[in-house]
Amino acid sequence: MFGRTFRLLSQLPAGKAAALASAKVLLTVLAVCALLYVASMKAIKYEVESNLQRLAEVTAATIDGDLHQTFTDPKQETSEAYNRAIEPMRTAQEAGHETAYIYTLVLRDGKAHFILDPTEAGDEDGDGVDDKSHIMQEYPEVSEDALRALQEGIPIAESEPYTDSWGTFISGYAPIFDSKGKQVGIVGVDLDAKDYVAHLQGVKNAGIIAIVLGCLLSLFSGVLIYFGQRTALAHKAQLIENQEALEEAKAEADKQNVALLDQQNRLEDAVKRAKLANEQMQVASARFGRLFHGLPVACFTFDSEGRIHEFNDLFQSLLGIPIEQILTQTVSDLFGETSRFTEVFSAKEVEDVEWTFTKSDGSTLILASSAFLMGGDERLTGAIGSLVDITERKQLQDQLNKQLEELEEKNRLLDTLSTTDGLTGVKNRRALEQSLHSRLSLAQREGRPLSILLLDVDKFKQLNDNFGHQVGDQVLQQVAQILKDTARDADVVARYGGEEFVVILSNTNVEQSGIAAERYRSAIEKGKWEHRPVTASFGISTYVAGSFNHEDLIRQADEALYHAKENGRNRCAHFVELSDEGLAA
User: How far apart are CA 446 and CA 463, in angstroms?
Assistant: First the structure.
């Protein structure tokens, strides 16, 4: 169309000048538009590359290089250390809404491998590839710029987008250093190529608009020249319109620059926040380390699989286990299931669990173990376990228990000796009075009868005089044994003094007490006596009701005994059977 217009103009009287002028205007506009387009494209590319490189450097500065070297197994992705290592990267990724991925790479045997990636596992974009890279996952599609950054340890930004399994991106890389200044890997920051192209599209649109306007300008300039003076004003107006269009294009480019600057400011703010959070985390970690190692008990941390991560000096010195053995075995491997540490992850209480640990030298320790969880319900990070050596305490406790048992046995023996007659083995007079008092009180409360038998060995003084006191003691011992053998379970047999004995008969009335006394008397009479026959006289008293005490019972039984002895000995007499005349006599 423009060619035909120029040819028509050149055939008219003033057409050659108009066509030449139009051509000059067209070439000028095209040249200006091309220069503006190239300059704008370079400026935007430089700005994007600089921002990506700067973001990679800032993110690399927040990564703990010493900790980064410890990740060699994908199973470590569930550990507290891994979550702590990716936290700065997650912060940087969330701060830059246009950032697609942030990750770290290491070089092993000339091949690139992933280490850290804060991206959540899964296929959110539906491309059939896990969005998250994993520890020591090989990256066969690594770009030449990424390899160069790994090999030379310098920050680099991609000049053009590239494509791998995760999509098309433009990326920046920066080296990671450990505390000794040694490079241990690089950080990669990916910007989606669609976002990058979107940044360039405004400039392209402005260039196209400028070219179209230039063509129209050249066409209209020829027409305006052809029409002469009348079209001069229109030509001037067109020039003003074209100038405004160029200014709009420039304004659009400025707008793009402002957007890039805004993104840069947001990234810088995010980096500042990440740096502050990292500093606070380091301070908190140092404080926890001082507290942990300063505890006066052996402590260690472990995860849900029983792997031990940290431990203090008391832990190693108490158990005497080499460091490499502690870090390569689980809690169950080291201590067995009796320690019950891992039960804390099953919502079971683990507190002061006592168990025995055998050291490498063959000695044994008695330990008390406790454990509690670290972190909240939504973000459980592990558990802390403690060990207290209670070996000496248990030994002292066993000794104390043994001494207490011996003391109790001695107390029982002492109690027996204090209530038992040393010659006959039956209860002594002190025990007799206690038993009689308590049983009489019980009988009075319950309204039941109570009887006692007071017996005296007949002609005992004569026996001592004829055969000696040793034979007399043997007779008393045999009488006491006959009384015990004859007594019921509820009867109480006691030595009252000398050759006198008392038998307490609970819940026994007058008639029943007489029968019982006759049974005891007959048993003594029928006993096998070595030197001469032995008999005994019995006095009986019974409580029935009313105001009565144990002294009354003894007194009445003594009076009845006196009556039995006065009436021929080897017989039984009850107090109630005595007449007033008999008592008077």
Answer: 44
